[in-house]
Amino acid sequence: AVISYNAKKGFGFVRCRQEDPDDPPQDVFVHRQAVVVQAGSALLSEGQLVSFVLSVDDTGRTCALDVRSPDGDPLPGLEEAKACLDLRTHTESWRGLKDEQQDRYTTGEDLGEVGTYFAVFDGHGGTFTADHLAKFLHKNVLIRKQGLPNWQASEGSMRRLLTDTFLTTDRELMKLPGYAKVKDGSTALVAILSGQRTPSPGAVGDVRLYVANV
């Protein structure tokens, strides 16, 4: 299984079980050039099951070569993984008893190697905050990613990226001209699909994300 993988630097580690069950597993170095993909750039994610051949590089370090799926097939590259998701989206809002529709959403924004971005913003008391989030939060994800040199496509890195983006956007909002006079706010629910069918969620406020196979 993949223990870690830094997509930006192109290397990580996979865990190899020993033939003797009493021996501890060995973490083995893997470089992106050793990953056999159908097309495009290599995509490995934490916890992903793979097969590989043990080897030793020129420095004497044990490494993994010919990294494939457990069945021996080439792994999907980043572009193929996104295409395999076969994303179909539907959005619907209900104004309820409010004088105006204060909810906003963003769907299917392509954030490159980060993934495909979806978000819902439930405005409270106005639309200023929800409008700003719908226009800029996904852009801030990419801006903040550039400031995280060790970012990689893993659950921990995605959590740090979204947390940093939420905090930065909140500070950005409070500095906007006229914001002090605006007495509204918004919840925020974000889900990013990055080549896997399980989304990476982030939320602020009284919102929930439900995932189901249909």
Task: Describe the overall structure.
Helices cover 21% and strands 28% of the residues. The longest helix is centred in the C-terminal third of the chain and has 20 residues, at 155-174. The protein has helices at residues 78-84, 128-146, 155-174, and strands at residues 2-6, 11-16, 26-31, 51-56, 62-68, 103-110, 116-124, 185-186, 188-193, 200-204. Helix 2 crosses helix 3 (155-174). It is elongated, with a radius of gyration of 21 Å. The protein starts with a strand and ends in a 10-residue tail after the last strand. The protein has 2 domains: 2-82, OB fold (Dihydrolipoamide Acetyltransferase, E2P); 85-204, PPM-type phosphatase domain (Phosphatase 2c, domain 1). The strands form 2 sheets. A 5-stranded mixed sheet has the order 1-2-3-5-4, with no helix packed on it. Strands 6, 7, 8, 9 and 10 form a 5-stranded antiparallel sheet that branches. It is α+β, with helices and mostly antiparallel strands and 214 residues long. The model has no long low-confidence stretch (mean pLDDT 83). The chain is built from 3 helices and 10 strands. Strand 9 and strand 10 (200-204) form a beta hairpin. This is Protein-serine/threonine phosphatase. Residues 88-214 form the PPM-type phosphatase domain. Keywords: Hydrolase, Metal-binding, Protein phosphatase.
